[in-house]
């Protein structure tokens, strides 16, 4: 991981467009060259963040998704902003698409049309052992060429086996709580879970004749 000089960081923040920030400062910045600069503010003990920096975990998850053929941003570089404090960052090429939350605001009828394909996409994640706690409408993109992609996947976990029924239900419960927190009432979550169950049944291997 490269250590970013203070002057370089200042230049990025001065000439970039801040897309997301909090009380600690900018979190996501669009750079003039079209790359995204993402800061991972430390939520762990400093020594742990130094051993396993968030930027590295984010890049590893991006690689995992790419190996499975699941669209995700392409990581360009992982960076140290303050190694002593465990503060890391990365730059990446953004994934073109529209978040489902934005699409729901702009064209709710289109969401209804996407539900069968979305259910199949989530089932594909689960069958590949992907448990994504932050699987919600802001992190799911509808892609211009069709299909879906993922962003902001720091907390993604790749298991060695497919998710079981309890884990899949828990993942959908995270989505339900997200909708409640955001006060989103017009997303067809029940239809999504029904379509997911239907897709899962259709993928079950046929029972052998005895």
Description:
The chain has 210 residues and is an alpha+beta fold. The chain has 2 domains: 92 residues, Phosphorylase Kinase, domain 1, CATH 3.30.200.20; 105 residues, Transferase(Phosphotransferase) domain 1 (Transferase(Phosphotransferase), domain 1, Orthogonal Bundle), CATH 1.10.510. The chain has 7 helices and 11 strands. The strands form 3 sheets. The protein has a 6-stranded mixed sheet, with helices on both faces. Strands 7-9-10 form a 3-stranded antiparallel sheet. Strands 8-11 form a two-stranded antiparallel ribbon. Strand 5 and strand 6 form a beta hairpin. It is globular, with a radius of gyration of 19 Å. The C terminus is likely disordered.
Number of helices, where a helix is a run of at least 4 consecutive DSSP H or I residues: 7
> What is the name of the CATH architecture of the largest domain?
Orthogonal Bundle
Number of strands: 11
Tell me, briefly, the overall form. Answer: globular
CATH fold-type name of the largest domain: Transferase(Phosphotransferase), domain 1
Report how far apart the termini are.
59 Å
Helix and strand sequence: EHEEEHHEEEHHEEEEHH
- Main β sheet profile: 6 strands, mixed
| Low-confidence parts | 206-210
